[in-house]
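hiii, so i know i said id send this last week but things got crazy w the move. better late than never?? heres the sequnce for the chain we talked about at the cafe, plus the structure i predicted for it. fair warning i was half asleep when i ran it
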Amino acid sequence: MAIEYSARVSRIPVYPAAAGYALPEDVARLASNESPDPPLPQVIEAVTRVLGGVNRYPDPTNSKLRAALSDRFGVPASRIAIGNGSCDILLATGEALLEPGAELVYSWPSFSVYPQLEAASGATGIRVPLNDRHEHDLDAMATEITAATRLVIVCNPNNPSSTAIPLEDITAFLAKVPRHVAVLLDEAYCEFNVLDDPDASVELLKRHPNLVLLRTFSKIYGLCGLRVGYALCGDERFVTAVNQVRQPFFCSAAAQAAAIEALKHQDAVTERVERAIVARVEVEAGLNELGIVPAESQANFCWFDLPEDAVEADVVSGLAERGVLVRAGTALGREGALRVTYGTPQQNDRFLAALRGVLDL
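okay and structure toks below
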């Protein structure tokens, strides 16, 4: 007789992780929205300094990191949650807020982890299609909020579509959301968004205790491999709730040290954003030359529909054969599309040349 597993295990979709981790280093890895920039030397030094003490557990309160984030954003440390990547906080949010009979509202396609929240909790997920510009339809999302709604997620900039909603529209949307509904503004890519100052949304926390800003050190800070994320919260009770449903010591000593040091180098953040914007312009121009019009990106990646006669799986495999890894749209919620991370100038050129060859243009 086989082991009997919980029914919810069969409901939870498998996260569509990118392939290629065992491939040679000369492959252009443009599939996971990682930074092409390695950690700063100072960050590596900070991590190295704590390695001699890893026989001890890391600070379970993440006190120094929360203090550093408090200094950076002006949010009390008691209203800052830390996680093993932002996904850790996201999944804990579902665990803390959702249950059978509750509802979760989010746009689709959007981040692939959101469906896991409804599946794991038994809540009902309400998916609102993106508009024809691949953007969140906030008016349509507002109409889906009911007395059963516990959580609304807005991914801004949106993954995988790369688009962003102006803060003015977010502000108007928040005014429509009842106070009993938590709004999680997933801002993993906010530093790349030039529509507004990335710090501007922090001011909304003063007026909306039901708001949570979810952010990460994985993208602009280049710390994917250490897994550290954070949430700036309108109410400290949210921090208590998500911490209650997680294992202790969820953020390693190395991750805490790296994040604290990375926060000290905002000049490097500015430089990385500038390089990403240059890449954005150059890749968009290259795609336009191929007759492809991508969505208006405010992230470190682009999103576009393939030509009607192109087969998505064949394009993805053809690019891989040419040493370029990208993400297929089917795995991300839209068949016939690609999501491509901006890499180094050489990698971006390699991608465009490979795409031209695969499409035979």
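btw The first strand starts at residue 28 and ends at 29. thought thatd interest u
miss u guys!!
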